Sugar isomerase
Amino acid sequence: MQLEKQSIQNINQDALAAHQRKFTYIAGEVANAEHIVKKLEAFNIAIPSWALGTGGTRFGRFSGGGEPRSLEEKIEDVGLIHALNRSSNSISLHIPWDIPDNASSIKTLASQLGLHFDAVNSNTFQDQQKQELSYKFGSLHHVDKAVRKQAVEHNIEVIKYGVELGSNALSVWLSDGSNFPGQLNFRNAFKNTSESLQEIYDALPDDWKIWIEYKPYEPNFYSTTIGDWGQSYLLASKLGSKASTLVDLGHHLPNTNIEQIVSLLLMEGKLAGFHFNDSKYGDDDLTVGSINPYQLFLIFNELVEGMDARGLDHATGIGWMIDASHNVKDPVEDLLQSVEAIKIAYAQALLIDQQELKSAQQNNDVAKGQEILQNAYRTDVRPLLAEARLRADGALDPIGAFRKLKVRDQLIGARGSKSVATGL
Amino acid sequence: MQLEKQSIQNINQDALAAHQRKFTYIAGEVANAEHIVKKLEAFNIAIPSWALGTGGTRFGRFSGGGEPRSLEEKIEDVGLIHALNRSSNSISLHIPWDIPDNASSIKTLASQLGLHFDAVNSNTFQDQQKQELSYKFGSLHHVDKAVRKQAVEHNIEVIKYGVELGSNALSVWLSDGSNFPGQLNFRNAFKNTSESLQEIYDALPDDWKIWIEYKPYEPNFYSTTIGDWGQSYLLASKLGSKASTLVDLGHHLPNTNIEQIVSLLLMEGKLAGFHFNDSKYGDDDLTVGSINPYQLFLIFNELVEGMDARGLDHATGIGWMIDASHNVKDPVEDLLQSVEAIKIAYAQALLIDQQELKSAQQNNDVAKGQEILQNAYRTDVRPLLAEARLRADGALDPIGAFRKLKVRDQLIGARGSKSVATGL
Amino acid sequence: MQLEKQSIQNINQDALAAHQRKFTYIAGEVANAEHIVKKLEAFNIAIPSWALGTGGTRFGRFSGGGEPRSLEEKIEDVGLIHALNRSSNSISLHIPWDIPDNASSIKTLASQLGLHFDAVNSNTFQDQQKQELSYKFGSLHHVDKAVRKQAVEHNIEVIKYGVELGSNALSVWLSDGSNFPGQLNFRNAFKNTSESLQEIYDALPDDWKIWIEYKPYEPNFYSTTIGDWGQSYLLASKLGSKASTLVDLGHHLPNTNIEQIVSLLLMEGKLAGFHFNDSKYGDDDLTVGSINPYQLFLIFNELVEGMDARGLDHATGIGWMIDASHNVKDPVEDLLQSVEAIKIAYAQALLIDQQELKSAQQNNDVAKGQEILQNAYRTDVRPLLAEARLRADGALDPIGAFRKLKVRDQLIGARGSKSVATGL
Amino acid sequence: MQLEKQSIQNINQDALAAHQRKFTYIAGEVANAEHIVKKLEAFNIAIPSWALGTGGTRFGRFSGGGEPRSLEEKIEDVGLIHALNRSSNSISLHIPWDIPDNASSIKTLASQLGLHFDAVNSNTFQDQQKQELSYKFGSLHHVDKAVRKQAVEHNIEVIKYGVELGSNALSVWLSDGSNFPGQLNFRNAFKNTSESLQEIYDALPDDWKIWIEYKPYEPNFYSTTIGDWGQSYLLASKLGSKASTLVDLGHHLPNTNIEQIVSLLLMEGKLAGFHFNDSKYGDDDLTVGSINPYQLFLIFNELVEGMDARGLDHATGIGWMIDASHNVKDPVEDLLQSVEAIKIAYAQALLIDQQELKSAQQNNDVAKGQEILQNAYRTDVRPLLAEARLRADGALDPIGAFRKLKVRDQLIGARGSKSVATGL
């Protein structure tokens, strides 16, 4: 299914007066409202194909209904999201879950919905049915060269699919690690990983990037071979300028100062982009901004300041993507909430008077520095987001419109109440 | 020094028009603005006497200037804070740091500034100069009955000072614990603590309460004898109805769900109140709301809902106090920021439509439940706080007024740039 | 398959001389070697039926071969373990994974292998195929009374199966919780849980116990309705003397002092027993003693001292069970390693001179207290374990024997290389 | 005071028979006992001058008696430790706490006791009395170039003192960081630090090294400018081959896999050495091996394997030092316990058959890999340590000898019961 512009506008109509009252107010209160609205219009966050169905844990999965049964239906769902929020104009695929049978028709479908293809993701953390060698003990770090070779070739195949679809980045997350002391030799594992990545790197087209994710634990629970930003950075440095570090917000030890890592990676020219989500304990893959929205804001403060310092375009300078698991909410609603939270943080960060902040920092006026950030954060920027959506023919209230238009009911009608999407 | 009402009003004058514009707007947008303003007017948070000077760590202390040199000057500082924010009408003393030489004149001074005395705090985590027995190995849990007796008597003496000043609660934080496995017998330590507390409990005046704080570590680094809410609750249950559990936000292991603990203690009638602060790592004693303001809001959501369910008055039903350490900011500014953050969280919690929330919960509409909380949290309630202050003759912008009136300079002029207050 | 006593003895023969040399040495060095050997002979740890197959994570599962395909084959595997280590004389079942079609023949089979049935476990964290109502939003804490009723009845049914098999305890672990702030009302969830447990409690046979497990997170990632020992203790206290708290070593926040919790629960008569495993990050379910064996020893120190103080028999006073997931090792080998680690910790704890320790504690001789524990811990007690096994007709080296006898090959031969056991 | 070799030998006499029995046994059981004893004889761990007095926390300090009042007395204490354990042949000084008035006489004193001078430590985390500019807001990262210059010059002065004493490494730990979001610009702070370090680096004598420590928090509680190994590594890489990363075991976030970091730093040629201690929560600075001795062993496993792979001499290839705080134990006894724990871990690591381990790893025989490590770890190597000490004229039981010789009483007699050493 596809959402008609008109049906969204009809729903907007009822809320228009209230919106205009709110927008007029905030536009009068903040100095750069128009600037922020324009930035928000240009800003998009990619949707992962594997997050359009209900997620699960090792203890079970409780599916919802109307989940996409094919790559086409996944693209259709991203189209729905984008029609509502006008900020999700791309999809990130996971191979082999999303192998396109016919790349050209898939591209056409996406294009009709205003979508393109973000980074493609390889998968060497599961064994596929006809796979020759097992990844039980890892992939790119494996002690057996044949397994490493198989994993390298899989990554090169993923690039090939990406090229067909017009993607230009390969995102690599490895689950390689160990569960017990003594299981592996850290040094050899790291060197094997480095060599394997080099082979993949050498196969990258000229205009492609490789993004190297890190994660401290899960599904391995003693060590992970690319466990922290330093290890990812080290690998990316050895590889060269096309390689950089991908930050998944949930992939950190308790209490990590993620915004500082972001700042330093930007400084070193090695920040690939983000997998956004939120968490209270570990890689909980919760809705972005649902647990600690101030941290998200602090990250965007670093991003705005740091990207401006390097002259990077906010919308395209790095990769923006959600990576969450929707275990108890409608996946589409959950993704709409995540995009909203990201854009709120971004808008608030754009409110910060960077000159004033620098001046407070230069004077060690700590209370003032805190006030500047808090003033931006405490501002209600939601009317700015709504205005940006309105101008782009999106919904003033995306989740509200999703519900009023009974989209999920229609999807269940079309796909059945027992459909289960591939993914985590 | 004392702040004249007139001088604050003069400063308010310049910001009045802007304030009225903002307040009018928000009052038009939210359903219960007037109700919230009234609640805010009635709401006060006690100031700890030991937080009026610059704090330190084991690595050092970098004093500011104009710190209070006596109990009188500490009360004077709280008077300044209260004159600005009209929400800090009491002070919490720490004995023996704050022994009043003349209780009656101290009470008169406080009364003139609109202040009264909150819970009194005992100190058995340090040795005092003329103290007979050492607390090196603990106090109420000590293996030696004589040490326990000395500590019990100190607590009873603290109650006596509190009675003289019109306080009606004893706040007990013990550093008792161990640094190494084998150092103590957990069971005996717990039983000794229970017996010692019983002796103190028996000495409480009829209208007094005893508040039992818990903390998982520091200054002991292997075990703490009252280490978590469960241990505090167990002790408070054994003692009786005058005993309850005090929650210091910084006294939890990483990732603890504090709001759930608050909810359950309220349910069981055992929530004494709070020591507010914020932290990223441990008991960092940072400004309230400076690290994770959403958590603070979630705690206030539980408080508002839970206190209403028990028919408790928000302002007086439990104890509200700040317990922070101001290592790099002016202590008065820092405390003003903390009070502001607490009241913002409280106002946002008052915005929540509890009926609507209950309905979403009853329907397992998780996305809706989240939206309800986030809608309240994302609302800019600062004009409501400013209005409450304005009506109470406080400053629209407390820190701004503090700076414009050059209060710190005057304090330095009066007390010198090398004064160092007692405290942590 | 079943291991013949003779085949184990044949293998022991080769190592007998070395064993006797080692045992003679240690028996001469420590004061109470014979006492420890006897205690070890009497000590058994239950094997969970769900840990006999390869475990997995949400990212995948890499099965081994020869996994048990039925309850009978699970019992057979425990029989193999017990034949080798003579310390695993019971099995803990999980309903509905392990519903016995014919209880009497199952009991006979177990009995032939020297086994009996430990606590039975209910499962309300997954939906079963023909189940009427879903546990997606919880079971005993559910907002809908009908769901709670279904979950209560399931538990009562589990008791019924347990009675048939001669078990006498129900172990309840709930995954009930929430993923997002606003999803549930903590107080109502707790009260619902309490009422549901009361109904189950009322259905317990006279000689039965109910063990209430706690866990801070996973599979819910914002709150868990029985999240810590304090919450479990509170529920168990309300229920009565048949209810107590079950400690799973992996169910704690980072840095929790578990041994102190154990000590206090024992003191209050509310320690049900253990689910043993080890972890570095969260509920990693790794082999017992593989990550932090000293912590395991410290727990056993509290157990030995605390059980002796209450006059509890070490072997039967509380429940002993493994709860681990074997993702990269042969499950049987992994379980053998776990049992070995538990018994080493127990033997080391039995080495502690409790009188000497008490004396050091009474004198605050911290260095001495540490030395006493470390002296016990640093002693190589493996010959004591081997001797206990030898006397009970077990293997001197259980894993060595398992490999030499090619047990896994035989199991694969009988069950196939693609069999997958039910479980996590 | 100084311990006579004869008095130690007299005490050894009583325990000699038992020692020889134990040593003979273990020498017969393990393949490379003689090799390990020789390695242990060659192995020394430096003692920090600031750990010879009782430590404290921000909540207080409970001094013991007989603490060293001068640099001479600190050296004297290290002499006592070395006489007992024969493994502490150097001292690490902290400037300005330990400025030598007369370097030549200090060197002579040390030399008489068999000691030399390990790395010198600068201190820019505290303000000294006559210091012109304050380090309240940092030192090498400071926004003010004048403060940075002062801190650089202090470090260069420390090198000068070190040169006089024969030291050849500068150890730099910075407390630079921030307490609040907004306080500083991470990028500028990092760049300033890098530039300041470059100036110090340029002043290093040819044969000197600079060791850069990292720490995630404390005394700053929001960010630390050199917060993790990655940041330290990045700085050391920019500086050059004389710069490397110093690992303090307590300076990590919860659950960090430290041994993996050690392995990678060794691989990259950037491991400077260690500050040994142990901890349960944060930088608790507890006795080495008192909380998690298996982790210490795993670190030594990486060290032995990794140093051998690089052809580094175990004794001198990297820097070995204790950095602990002794709050409740006699500092000398505490240090003796720490050295013992380190050497036990080292001896156990030397027991590992690296060929066998590599083979298990190559075959993904995870259970076997774990067994190999555990077999080494479970071996009682204490007789090997005692033998190494005996051969070097040290005490069989250092703490026992310290107590029997009533060393602390003599120190109190000489220095008084109220002496307080400089340090943390």
